[in-house]
UniProtKB/TrEMBL annotation:
Keywords per UniProt: DNA-binding, Phosphoprotein, Transcription, Transcription regulation
Organism whose genome encodes this protein: Methylobacterium isbiliense
Protein name, entry field: Transcriptional regulatory protein FixJ
Positions of post-translational 4-aspartylphosphate modification: 58
Superkingdom of origin: Bacteria
HTH luxR-type domain span: 139-204
Occurrences of domain Response regulatory (ranges): 10-123
Record carries keyword Disulfide bond: no
NCBIfam families for the chain: PRK09390.1
Segments crossing the lipid bilayer: none
Claim: Cytoplasm is one of the keywords in the record: no
CDD domains: LuxR_C_like, REC_FixJ
Matches recorded under InterPro entries: CheY-like_superfamily (IPR011006), Sig_transdc_resp-reg_C-effctor (IPR016032), Sig_transdc_resp-reg_receiver (IPR001789), Tscrpt_reg_LuxR_C (IPR000792), WH-like_DNA-bd_sf (IPR036388)
Length: 206
């Protein structure tokens, strides 16, 4: 029983930044065991099968980046949940990560509480949320309240478009796109763009 609890609380942290790897030391005091790797290849070489716990990986790394690591994990038959760390403006990468099977994306910089919540959710779920999830159903209900133009902006956002690019596609100004984005966030009750994209992908509308 003790072994199962330890396995279920294991977090494989992959990041080429030593400061980032050091910063997750607090996980040990939060009941989670953090194993650190400076490259995706190191994780792939050391990961046992069947693997336990979850993976926390940066999306931008030299060599094997977070997306390629996710692809290789799935190709190797590893099904453990993956949480991807993204930078501001990495919406296209976040969308691709979710489509590849990441269970969550968390934007840097983040606080300890947000990271713990993402990791514990990943460890509890063990797989991405399903479309039948009541939370997803509520998200879809909110999406149905969007105007036609707001829905067009949402579609462009989850496709990875920037405000300038969306403005060109829809023939409106970037500032107008920003206004529509603010309305989207309010109507869907998403806390940030990453969360909006995450729910859109999980709900199958991306």
């Amino acid at each position: 029983m003790v072994t199962w609890v330890m396995a279920a609380s294991l977090v494989h942290v992959v990041d080429d930044d030593p400061a980032m790897r050091d910063s997750v030391a607090f996980l040990d005091t939060a009941g989670l065991e953090a194993r650190r790797y400076e490259a995706g290849t190191e994780l792939l070489d050391r990961l046992l099968k069947p693997a336990s716990g979850c993976v926390l990986t940066d999306i931008r790394m030299p060599g094997i980046d977070g997306l390629e690591l996710l692809r290789r994990l799935r190709a190797a038959g590893h099904t453990l949940p993956v949480v991807v760390m993204t930078g501001h403006g990495d919406v296209p990468l976040a969308v691709e990560a979710m489509k590849l099977g990441a269970c969550d994306c968390i934007e840097k910089p983040f606080d300890d509480k947000a990271l713990l919540q993402a990791l514990r959710s990943a460890l509890e779920c063990g797989e991405p949320a399903k479309a039948a999830d009541p939370t997803l159903q509520e998200f879809l209900r909110r999406v149905r309240t969007l105007s036609e133009r707001e829905r067009q902006v949402l579609d462009q956002l989850v496709a990875g478009g920037t405000c300038k690019e969306i403005g060109r596609v829809l023939n409106i100004s970037p500032r107008t796109v920003e206004i529509y984005c603010a309305k989207l966030m309010a109507k869907t009750q998403a806390e940030n763009l990453q969360e909006l994209v995450r729910w859109a992908v999980l709900a199958g509308i991306a």
